Amino acid sequence: MVRGSASLSAQIGRLATPQAELLGGPFEKKVQDFFREVSRLLPWTIKNYKLDEIVTLGELRRNVSLLFRQHANVTDPKVVDILIYKGREELESVALQHKQRHHLIGQFIVAPQKLREQMARKRPISEFLENFYTNRLP
Amino acid sequence: MVLRRLSDAAQSLRAARLAPVSSTVFAERPLHTSSSASQQPAAAPSNDIEVTVNGNSVSIPKGSTVMAACSAAGIDIPRFCYHQRLSIAGNCRMCLVEVERSPKPVASCAMPAAPGMNIKTDTPLVKKAREGVMEFLLINHPLDCPICDQGGECDLQDQSMHFGSDRGRFTELKRSVHDKNLGPLVKTVMTRCIHCTRCVRFATEVAGVQDLGMTGRGNASEIGTYVEKMMSSELSGNVIDLCPVGALTSKPYAFTARNWELRSTETVDVSDALGSNIRVDARGHEVMRIVPVQNDAVNEEWISDKARFQYDGLKRQRLNVPLVLGKEGLESAQWEEAIKATAEALGKVKGNEISFIAGKLADAETLIAAKDLANRLGCGNLKVESGFPDLDADVRSNYLANTTISGVELADVILLIGTNPRTEAPVFNARLRKVFMEGAHLASIGEEYDLTYPTEHLGEGAEALTKVLKGAPILKRLQEAKYPAIIVGPGLLNRLDRAAVLQQVHELVEKANVVRDDWNGYNVLHDSASRVAALDLGFLPSARASSAPAPKVVYLLGSDDYSEEDVPKDAFVIYQGHHGDRGAERADIILPGSAYTEKSATFVNFEGRPQRTKAAVPRVGDAREDWTIIRALSEILGKPLPYDSKKELRQRLADVAPHFSATDTVQLPMWLNGEYFKAFKDRSGKVAAQSEPFRSSVANFFQTDVISRTSINMAKAVQARAVMPHEGSSLHQP
User: Fold this and answer.
1) What is the percentage of chain B residues whose pLDDT exceeds 90?
2) Helices assigned H by DSSP within B273-326
């Protein structure tokens, strides 16, 4: 069992590790490739964390791409590299099960949903209103 | 285990915390006390006597009982029949103590303490006596604690654990007694009765109905109603608290919970304008029962049947999600959509085409938020439902009970004008009865009601008032009285000819010298919990409101008793409240709010005492606290209110009306020498006083607001009243 799971994580690790030739080149390509990497892991993530009760593959991919798009205005290649690095850290902790189900739900299902609600609003709402809508006022 | 009502000291401590006013505001006035011994004020030193209790010497006022001496020495005496607000019966014998040079143990509740008395409470004789009394009481008491609703909070259970013998010697059959039917509210299991007669004394002395009594002698004696009938009092539920055993228990509460499962929250009742202090006992998110909390300045330790039993209305017909009128009627919506739709409706029309109507249960926080929002929208059409929205609120003494609720006990002549306190505020009526029992003279103008004490009936309408002004004997009585009082009912303020009648009343106030240097006897009684706060905060139509066109958008703040002309047929109606009733049925948008047991909110009672409720149970479904809805709405409308938290909102309340800064106290209003009332003369010209009799505003005591109308308990009580054999018009004699 232990050996089996070790080989599985090794597999996943390989899946999530970038190929050496991709480390150079234009950053648009790097980002695209990293997004593909993430997308490749999504079916396994849904199955492994039993997220199919809450979300479909398409929805989850849209959510992830929304998180990518949050940084659409970043043009500095160094910053992009850092962001990809941080993203890969996240990816690894998902793949190695350092995260639990509720972490994923909060990060990749609830947070993007809130982002969308916010983007749908014409102007940002106050903290009070935010708390009011989410029933968090005492 | 803590013995209920055993510690007078603890009770008075609690009373002092709840009612700091009695010690501050009335410091210079002589405090009126009832005849019971333990309540006697600290008298002058010359009136004190010295007695010894268990070797310690204590000094107590002359005329105190032995029991009072023991409690002064910090010793609790077990008791069943003794109760500090009832007369002394001395029939349970549980309070036996030893007194030196007395041939046998004495009943300490009934024995006056004499100077130099040597009282002992911890001797073998006392222990034996208590054990013996317990044994006698338990002879005929069934061993059904496991199925008894009093189990766990039973005086008999507790005291038999403390003082009883460890074994029984009784082998014969126990006696059994038929249960009595006292109506839909009080359940009886008369076999459990130990004949302390607290209920009988409460009914005759406090409630003022001669319904309960004892029949038979010796082993055959029974507590009952002589003939089968329900208790005809609005205070009948209090016998449940008084009963030290499980003979009288609550019918709606029967077999639903055990007291150790309940989570208690001390809060304030909103079923009438008195603001009785209550304790809400909840299990999970369900209110299981409501019982009174002692507050000598407000409700003593009684509450009305409506306050006690209407809680089942909180479980039915609740609004739990926002609803917006769509193609297929009202459809459930997210809060964001509902608030947006509301803002759209309010934004489309001009300020003076909007109208706000507050209901009977609106709290002060919601009222001030709504008023601030309305003013920001340029709207001055603020109303309180069912009557006198335009009563002047410039001077507080004009609409408050100026004697205060406990202060009315000082009064020696009282004139009731157009009021039936028995339905409008039953607990206050019990206090008026107490005043009568102390020897005050009461007179009334208006329809004649059975108030449980006799009043001199002077006539039905304005002509009787004129007669009094011209010099009826009552005028002289009022003038000669030391503390005269006039009580004006809400029914009178509802009349079209209010200005004319009030002008006469004020003439009488002046003529009879009801307001003196140290005494203001002018009282106004209200019938709904929100009214005084609304007046305090100026939730009234603005000066230009009368010229406004018919409203196109009406915002109902829990208003279900609005009049039809205030809500035109083509108006867009927004209902914010907690029950689906008349208002919600008419509404285009429904915003679910919270009931008084679910929020911390401020209410002001009719003596002007701001009191705060506490949340005892969580809100229902997706409902929100009322003021937050208005605050959220204001932001979407682009006119955000400047408070985000309840603390800031309460600061705003205190800015508008300073007395809100000190809850649980009464700030006595200024009278302005009656100058203010001279203005009534100019206004009274518009509508002359009519001959129609003065009526109470509350015809059906049990169903006055949306919670009590939804309550099945209240509906059953109304039904039981309807089939109750009609009593003659004879007034009960004390």
Assistant:
1) 79
2) 305-309
pLDDT, tens digit, for every residue of B251-286? 999 999 999 999 999 999 999 999 999 999 999 999
Query: Can you give the pLDDT at residue B129?
Result: 95
ipTM (interface predicted TM): 0.81
Q: B247 touching A, CB under 8 A?
A: no
> Closest by alpha carbon to B673, among B513, B475, B476?
B513
Contact of B625 with chain A, judged by CB distance below 8 Å, is answered with: yes
φ/ψ (deg, to 5) at B516: -120, -175
Q: Compute CA distances B657 → B60, B259, B306, B538, B664, whole Å.
A: 43, 40, 30, 9, 15
Q: Do A132 and B632 touch (CB under 8 A)?
A: yes
Say whether B644 and A126 touch across the interface (CB within 8 A): yes
pLDDT beyond 50 at B6: no
Choose among A125, A128, A138: nearest Cβ to B631: A128
pLDDT at B540 over 60: yes
> Phi then psi for B57, rounded to 5 degrees?
-90, 130
Question: Residue B568 above 60 pLDDT?
Answer: yes
Write down the residue that tokens 């915002």 correspond to: B555
* pLDDT score at A97: 93
Report pTM.
0.85
Minimal C-alpha gap between B493 and chain A (Å): 38
Distance CA B430, CA B621 (A): 39
Q: What is the pLDDT of residue B26?
A: 39
Q: Are B280 and B265 in contact (CB under 8 A)?
A: yes
Average pLDDT value for residue range B298-322: 96
Q: Contact A128/B644, CB-based, under 8 Å?
A: yes
C-alpha dihedral sign at B616, B621, B626, B631: positive
| Least CB–CB distance from B632: residue in A117, A129, A138 | A129
Contacts of B394 (CB under 8 A, 6+ apart): B676
Q: How many CB pairs under 8 A join A and B?
A: 31
Within 10 Å of residue B547's Cβ, how many Cβ atoms? Answer: 7
Q: Which residue has the higher pLDDT, B62 or B6?
A: B62
Asked if B624 is an interface residue toward chain A (Cβ–Cβ < 8 A), one would say yes
Helix segments in B611-659, DSSP class H? 626-636, 646-656
B684's enclosing H/E stretch is helix B679-684
Let me know: does B245 contact B189? Beta carbons within 8 Å: no
